[in-house]
Amino acid sequence: VTYGSEDQLLTMSSEYSASDKSFIITLNPGNKRQDIVYTTDGSDPTVNSTRYAGPFRITGSATVKARLLRSYGVDSELLQRSFVFHQGLGLAPRLKALFSNTYTAGGIKGTVDGVRATSNFKDGLWQGYQKVDLGLTLPLGERKKINNVTVTFMQNLASWIFLPEWVELSISENGIDFVPLKRISFSNTPDNKETILREVSFK
């Protein structure tokens, strides 16, 4: 017996196009034939914002926000994703160990795909490792000037998500011999049960 279907949430998917160095953004209203309004400047969508007519491209770092457009105005539920353009986009990192099946971030390229994870560890954008160390090598293919390398980690002790003990950045000219540049240590705060995000930048 089918009593009805629950409303599906507004979703956003993205694909990086290496040919023109852009993100292709697709919005889906779920099982509701609702109009969608969105912004790409970080502001909250209103009834006067751009109406979604199909996949669109962004060519620079941006925060995309979207809402369903109802008869009474915009829906209260806000969907947002932040996209960061960097020199590792489109490249496939080499991993020392595989990530958890629970937190894949979409696969091998999840850590460098340019889509920023949120404070919700269930958003599908986080990559997690259990009982193994994360070791990631990103082959750039040629010598490049790197201004900084940024990594974000999460602590949520109630869900058994911990910060790493330390993170280290190393560089190599041949992909074999690596020179450590800097190591940063962490300490989990056992008294804090809230979600904590720690962003680390190597400059």
Low-confidence stretches: 1-6
Strand content: 35-45%
Count of helical stretches: 0
**Percent helix among the residues?**
under 10%
Q: Would you tell me the structural class of the helices and strands?
A: mainly beta
Radius of gyration: 20 Å
Q: Could you give the distance between the termini?
A: 60 Å
Total beta-strand segments: 15
Strand and helix order: EEEEEEEEEEEEEEE
Indicate the overall shape: globular
Mean pLDDT: 91
Q: What would you note in describing this structure?
A:
A hairpin with a 2-residue loop joins strand 6 and strand 7 (73-74). The chain is globular, with a radius of gyration of 20 Å. It contains no helices and 15 strands. The chain has strands at 11-17, 22-28, 35-39, 50-51, 56-58, 62-70, 73-74, 79-83, 94-95, 115-116, 136-137, 149-155, 166-171, 179-185, 196-202. The strands form 5 sheets. Strands 3, 4, 6, 7, 8 and 10 form a 6-stranded antiparallel beta sheet that branches. The chain has a 3-stranded antiparallel beta sheet with strand order 1-2-5, with no helix packed on it. The protein is mostly beta strands and 203 residues long.
Summarize the structure in short.
Helices cover 0% and strands 36% of the residues. With 203 residues, it is mainly beta.
